[in-house]
Amino acid sequence: MIKKIFKYILLTAFVGLFIWTLYFLWSKSQTPPVVFQTLTAFDTSIVKKTVATGSIIPRKEVNMKSQVSGIIEKLYIVAGQEIKAGDILAKIKIIPNMANLANAENRISVAQLNFDNAKIDFERNDNLLKQNVISKSEWLPYDLKLKSADQELKAAEDNLTLVKEGVTKAAGSATNTLVKATISGMVLDVPVKEGSQVIESNTFNEGTTIASVANMGEMIFEGKLDESEVGKVIPGMDILLTIGAIDIEKFAAKLEYISPKGATENGAIQFLIRAAITKQTGTFLRAGYSANADIILSKKDKVLSVPESVLQFDKDKTFVELETGTQKFEKKYIKTGISDGINIEVLDGLTKKDKIKIPTLAPPPEQH
User: Fold this and answer.
1) Structural domains of the chain, ranges and CATH numbers in brackets
2) pTM for this model (two decimals)
3) Which has the closest alpha carbon to 366: 319, 308, 299?
4) Which tens digit of pLDDT belongs to each residue from 163-206?
5) Are 295 and 51 in contact (CB under 8 A)?
6) What are phi and psi of 178, to 5 degrees?
7) Would you put residue 173 in left (φ > 0), alpha (ψ -120 to 50) or beta?
């Protein structure tokens, strides 16, 4: 009897445990009800913009080059130094070309022979003129020949001096062996050293750069803009520059140039743009700083807005879901304006009192 009772108790316990297990598994499989969060529309400023990357450069930067070939005998400047137009940058020591030197020396020899012969003829005919053997009109050609020979000899001597030293006697203190600054500004770079060889600048050769000089008081932004964005911008638009090396300050600029022709870079068409920095504060802008330019396409201050993440779409219409009761929502079609990619302007259909459903797939947006 006791054994039967014990069996019934065990059987009852086993059945109860089995039923509880089934209930537990069933309750676990049930999806908890979704509780949607809501938000309200708010006032904020919306700036629609596009971004270009580039760098800060001086508007006027000039490379100073030598007018003669030779060796740098002396450098008078260093990078970072302020100079004025006319200041001497370097002195060049002429290393004459052997062919030019030989030609110059040969020219002197020929000129000397012509002069000596002309002098002999002149002296002989001058004596004849004094003895009234010949007339003055017969004497004049010999006088002219002597003067011409003398001029040619002097010219040949000047040419030899020019080949050797880069300056002639007739030039006086003027010389092209001294490289002088053509503009005032700051020396940005001196790519040569004393003893370096330089090549003269001429029609066929750019020549060796002695120094690059720029006016650091007038800086511009130069960058590239993708072809998908270039049609949205026009000269005169406001720009806000963010310079990587100066993260505590932003700089205002104004777009002044858009290239009419694009160039292919990394498989995309890029257009060159330039913008003038309108206000330079006390912060020193170094040439070559990398920068991002936010080009302001349109801007509205203190407009009714919602995060773009709460918008839903029905074909070509935009709507949000408004709370009508506890976790009960209905569609409300709205009209939108400009967007900055995070928030979007609401032109019609919402008030600040409306509670807007936040879709479950969207993270809770930040309000400003």
Assistant:
1) 38-44+303-357 (2.40.420.20), 51-58+216-300 (2.40.30.170), 63-214 (2.40.50.100)
2) 0.62
3) 308
4) 666 665 555 444 668 889 999 999 999 999 998 888 887 777 88
5) yes
6) -100, 120
7) alpha
